[in-house]
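Sequence, please.
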C-alpha cells in the first residue's frame, strides 16, 4: 500500500512516519493489498492532534478524521474507523449479492431492487458566480451546501460547510 504522510504547520517526527506506515501496512493491507493509496494529514488544533486518513481503492474512498492528545492514538482511532467502514461496505455488497446471486435479472430489473425514494425534485436557474458569492448565497439560504456555476471556469461546482466550520468546494476533474 502506498502511504503519503503530510502535516499542516508542523513537522512530522521520523518515529511517527515509521509508526504510521507500519500500522497502515499491518492493519489495512489485508483488505487492499498493494492496490490502495493511503494519505495521512496531521494537524494540531487546541492542544489536540488531528489525524485525517483517506484510503482510495477501486474508485471507493474511505475517510476518517479523529483527534486525541497523542498522534499515535489518533492514528489508531482513524484506522479503526476505516476498518469499520470497510466491514460495513463489505457486508452491504455481500448482502446485495446474496439477494440477486441466482436470480436471472437484466439491467432494467436491477434498478428496481434499490429502495431509494426521491421525495422532491427542484429546478433552479444557475448564474455564474465566484466562490465568495456562492458561500454568501448558501449562508443566506441557510443551507449546508450550494451548487453554482463557477464564473472563473464555467464548470458546475458545489460548496459545502464542513463539520469544523470551514468551507470546501467540490470540482469535477477535467
Amino acid at each position: 500500500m502506498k502511504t503519503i504522510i503530510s502535516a499542516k504547520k508542523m513537522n512530522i517526527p521520523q518515529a511517527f512516519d515509521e509508526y504510521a506506515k507500519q500500522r497502515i501496512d499491518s492493519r489495512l493491507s489485508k483488505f487492499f493489498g498493494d492496490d490502495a493509496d493511503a494519505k495521512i494529514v496531521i494537524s494540531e488544533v487546541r492542544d489536540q492532534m488531528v489525524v485525517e486518513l483517506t484510503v482510495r481503492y477501486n474508485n471507493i474512498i474511505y475517510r476518517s478524521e479523529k483527534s486525541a492528545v497523542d498522534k499515535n492514538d489518533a492514528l489508531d482511532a482513524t484506522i479503526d474507523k476505516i476498518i469499520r467502514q470497510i466491514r460495513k461496505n463489505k457486508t452491504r455488497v455481500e448482502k446485495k449479492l446474496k439477494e440477486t446471486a441466482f436470480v436471472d435479472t437484466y439491467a432494467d430489473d436491477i434498478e428496481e431492487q434499490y429502495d431509494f425514494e426521491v421525495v422532491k425534485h427542484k429546478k433552479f436557474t444557475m448564474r455564474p458566480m465566484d466562490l465568495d458569492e456562492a458561500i454568501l448565497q448558501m449562508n443566506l439560504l441557510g443551507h449546508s451546501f450550494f451548487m453554482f456555476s463557477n464564473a472563473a471556469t464555467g464548470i458546475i461546482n458545489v460548496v459545502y460547510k464542513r463539520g469544523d466550520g470551514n468551507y470546501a468546494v467540490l470540482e469535477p476533474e477535467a
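The two ends are 27 Å apart (CA to CA).
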